[in-house]
Specification:
With 172 residues, the protein is of the alpha+beta class. The protein is 19% helix and 37% strand. The protein is built from three helices and eight strands, in the order ααββαββββββ. The strands form two sheets. It has a five-stranded antiparallel β-sheet. Strand 1 and strand 2 form a beta hairpin. It is extended and about 75 Å long. The model has no long low-confidence stretch (mean pLDDT 85).
Length: 172
């Protein structure tokens, strides 16, 4: 085999492998559609996956994996901050990952050191609820936001326990 033919063959193999290495998240974003396909929507939920592991004690570990495609400027404004509500007496929450997929192909990871924990806004009942928030910045039409969240505990009862995990176990 001549060197030039060998070189062409190597280039062909690299080109095929580059096409096969497309990020599956980016494929889902592309296939999801545009604002023209959903004229009444500001944001498109590409997927929203929840996985729960409930222990015999009632303690639950819940993982959330969500992907949103921004269709309009209004949609970008509504998703510029990730917010997780929780009651610290019965649950613990984490924002584990936030990734922005720009329309131009760039991928940006949000800086998790910027997560803030605030008292939740209250109107008339003050339960001590809190929010974890992460500002991801400006999102433009065509961008997408992938978020991975985690919650340990329960939602509806307010009890305490002797160790850290016990306080997240719901009453039986």
């Amino acid at each position: 085999m001549s060197r030039s033919l060998y070189f062409i063959l190597i280039l062909f193999v690299f080109a095929l492998s580059a096409q096969a290495a497309v990020n599956p998240i980016q494929e889902k974003i592309e296939a999801a559609g545009t604002a023209e396909d959903y004229p009444a929507s500001a944001v498109l939920t590409v997927f929203d996956s929840t996985s729960a592991d409930v222990q015999e004690s009632g303690l639950s570990y819940v993982s959330f994996h969500r992907l949103y495609k921004i269709l309009t400027v209004k949609g970008g404004l509504s998703h510029r901050t990730i917010i997780m509500d929780y009651d610290p007496l019965s649950a613990s929450v984490e924002i584990r990952e936030a990734t922005i997929y720009r329309k131009n192909g760039a991928i940006e990871k949000a800086d998790l050191s910027q997560i803030r924990d605030y008292p939740a806004p209250a109107r008339a009942i003050y339960w001590g609820a809190r929010q974890k928030m992460l500002e991801v910045g400006r999102l433009y039409p065509g961008d997408a936001l992938e978020v991975k969240l985690f919650r340990k505990g329960f939602t509806y009862a307010l009890l305490g326990g002797e160790n850290d995990d016990e306080r997240f176990i719901p009453p039986m």
